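Budget justification note: compute hours in this period were largely spent on complex prediction jobs such as the one shown. Inputs:
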Amino acid sequence: MFINIAFRNIFRQKRRSILTGLSISAGYVLFTLTLSLIEGSYSNMIKLFTESHIGHIQIHSDDYLTRPKIYKSINDKSKIEQTLSADKRVISFTPRAYSPALSFSDEKTGPVQLIGIDPEKEPTVSRLREKITEGNFFNNSQDAGDKVHALISKGLAIKLDLEINDEFVLIGQGADGSIANDIFIVSGTVGSKSSPDKTSVYVPLTTMQAFLSLDNNVHEYALLIGDISQAQIVSQNLQSELSDFVVSPWQVVEEVFFKSMEADKQGNWVFLALVMIIVCIGVLNTIFMSVLERTREFGVMRAIGFRAVGLVTLIFTETILLTLLSLFLGILVALPLVLWFSEVGYMFPEPMDMGGIEFQHLKGELSLKVLFVPMGIVFLFATLTSALPAIRASRLTPVDALGRF
Amino acid sequence: MRKILLLLLCFPLVVNGSENQAKVIINEMEELYRGTSSEVSMTMQVETPQYSRSLGMFGQTLGKERAIFRIISPKKDKGITTLRRGKEMWNFFPKINKVIKVPPSMMIGSWMGSDFTNDDLVQETKLVEEYNLELITDSETFLIILTPKEDTVSLWGQIDYLIQKDPLLPLKQSFFDDYGTKVRELVYKDPKVFGEKLLPSAMEMIPLNKPGHITKLFYNQLKFDPEGVSEKSFSLRELKKRI
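Corresponding output:
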């Protein structure tokens, strides 16, 4: 019976109901869109960040991640490669070796981070090849001489005054305590002048191993998995299979980035709460007004014997029905919008540099969370805000109510 | 009474005597290895928990101030040369054709990845001039305790130099830091006759603060006053000579 009466009441005052409904719908759409964009820009940033170099999961020997030492290397490569190839969730993986070194050009010197990469596998994991701004990725056929090609970051090239095909010298400490020294040729530069990375030098892994007397060892495996949100779970599974090594998801590898991002996300809830409060005030206002407007109507209902509890139930039912209808409308509007943002996205005219990652694409995220968390919150608040006028209406005495207007 | 006076008078003489004797002994130790000039072929074996490697080296010395060492093997490091002249030191890397001067701040750094410091190649000759010496004698050995003089900048708070009396050969040097903790030990082993001189043919440098680390030095050949070693052999031009 209540539902029937409630429906009738809603449709009796079409203009009022539409206004109330629209404010709820608009609130929901605003909320959903904000959440979608916030989540989306983080996902986008994480994607760019992990695919730039670190990958989704990394494997090291011992505590290499926190205390890198050249001899904390992985020597049982076949076991890792077999396990990774067998795991369907792993898309690609690549071995790497690292070492600090000192670089010399004709006049200048500078510290560098030497990174040994597998020229064939590396492009399947990181965007190194895409980041080359001048020159070429490693040629497969190396020159006959013993001079080796290297990719260097643009910042380093500027610092050392190096052009493509210039020679430079690297000196480092080999894994056997020897002094590693050799001449390299710049085959390409990575990144732009403004990239924060001003020290990286990439050389083919085999060269690196010979240069540092690493034998066949590497320091790291970086891998990409199909679904990045599974990184922690896949990482745990791999860890149990590779007990001799340490498997870490990107959240651990880049702990500082991850933590600051989480903190930032928390901060965004404050912003979301503000959006929510605005939405709720709108809903409260319209519902309150619609109840006030009907004071006389409620007075008559009370006078003919409608009980106070019934009145409260009626107002609640009306609000719930109206909210549900509005949310349905809201989702019809929000879904295409969110879909567009997540699939196409908005391109900034100027790329933004956030923590060293350039990003130009404002993208949304489409997930159940983005659609239904705001829905739940809006529904809850609409219902709660209707409680106040409902209780007020139930307390009216018929005489007062009828006499007021 | 007269006896006591005599004793008092003699006492400073005794101390001086012991210091002079210590000087003589240390000088003699250094003469053992050096002569006026020498030519040495040696093997250095570096062992650490992570790696071990062996370097073949050829060296020449002239007097106390000049020395040059070239790595002969392994192939990867062949030709890397160290030249020292007095307090100055240079390394030459043939692969990159570069001479790098070892700055004073790097003097306590490792020499060629071994447990010997760059300083060890330079410092040893200065013992007599820069340290106070105290001689303790027992029936078979001399123990000379070296403490740095006031204006000496030294890495060590104390060096204990143990020397065998007969034949007169070095046995061991212990190095202490400023807090009196023993930091490293240099042990002399396997006396052999080179030319006409008997001297230890092996040395072991053991850093006590790095467990599992040891550097062994073996003299394969040692020639004193060889032909062709002169002031010219220790020039920067000679440093860059390729072998």
